[in-house]
Amino acid sequence: MSFSQTHLLGIEPLAAPEISTILDLSERYVYLNRSNMKHGDALAGLTQINMFFENSTRTQASFELAGKRLGADVMNMGMQASSIKKGETLIDTALTLNAMHPDLLVVRHPHSGAVDLLAQKVNCAVLNAGDGRHEHPTQALLDALTIRRAKGRLHRLSIAICGDIAHSRVARSNILLLHKMENRVRLIGPPTLMPSGISDFGVEVFEDMKEGLRDVDVVMMLRLQKERMDGGFIPSEREYYFRYGLDAEKLAYAKDDAIVMHPGPMNRGVEIDGEIADDINRSVIQDQVEMGVAVRMAAMDLLARNLRANRTREVMV
Fold it and tell me: Measured between alpha carbons, how far is residue 300 from residues 16, 106, 158, 161, 271 in Å?
């Protein structure tokens, strides 16, 4: 299996074969999670610490479940009441963690680059569960697995990412991954929600939803990230839904077998019509949640293998 990474900080450092390795192993964990005996031992004897400086029910629960199903000792640190709130620096937190000898550290942080900084200071494998507007690699990987299972492939597809692109680390990670796997990516949204330098992303940009959705294979909706907005990015939620919310009329411009995705949590009636979200013939939103556990199991399994191999080499030296 081709995977040489010691951390999973983003999609950008991954080569296409490494992405395929994660997805292939994830497939095995999908079957394990659907079996009566949902437990493996890939992380037996290892300690996993989850540090979420931002709240995220889905991601934290998914990582916790993934670790426990693979036999890790899992600890969730309550960062809302941590020493960080008392003035401790991130580096001091890293030094404290080192003294506990963790093996896997899962970090979600509101500031871009914070997870990378921690990875430089700790003696364990670090997984980025989302940092600022930078990246959310496991979300892109679970999206990729969902697409591959639904469409039978993950290359030469036309994929539309719609909505709040500017504030979305999910969009950034997906753009990087989909390009590495040779897909055509379209971004759809108002100019106020497009990041600066969008022309450098190698994507097609559309302001008109219907034009952008024409003949696409995958429609990936994004949440309006109001907590990251500091101004009037949209006139109103009602106007936003009228122009950019996914409903049956707009979806009709995509291919007849196009799938609908959303990373959650959804704002029904703002980003997506509730009937579309619940349509079992088009929506794969619940599949994304299921794939999230399998992908995180695979990512931690692969990192743990490299961690153990590196420690063995250090002992031998």
Answer: 18, 10, 30, 27, 32
- Give one DSSP letter per residue of 81-98, joined into a string: GSGGGGT--HHHHHHHHH
DSSP 193: G
Higher-confidence residue of 265 and 214: namely 214
Write the burial class of residue 199 (CB in 10 Å: 0-12 exposed, 13-18 middle, 19+ buried). exposed
Cβ–Cβ under 8 Å, residues 251 and 208: no
For residue 88, list its beta bridge partners.
Answer: none
Edge to edge, the sheet with strand 104-109 lists 73-77, 47-52, 104-109, 125-131
Structure tokens at 123: 């003696």
Q: Work out the pLDDT band at 87, boundaries 50, 70, 90.
A: low
pTM, 2 dp? 0.94
Distance CA 142, CA 30 (A): 11
Distance CA 293, CA 289 (A): 7
Nearest alpha-carbon partner for 184 in 150, 207, 210, 161 = 161
The per-residue pLDDT for range 138-166, each reduced to its tens digit, is 999 999 999 999 999 999 999 999 999 99
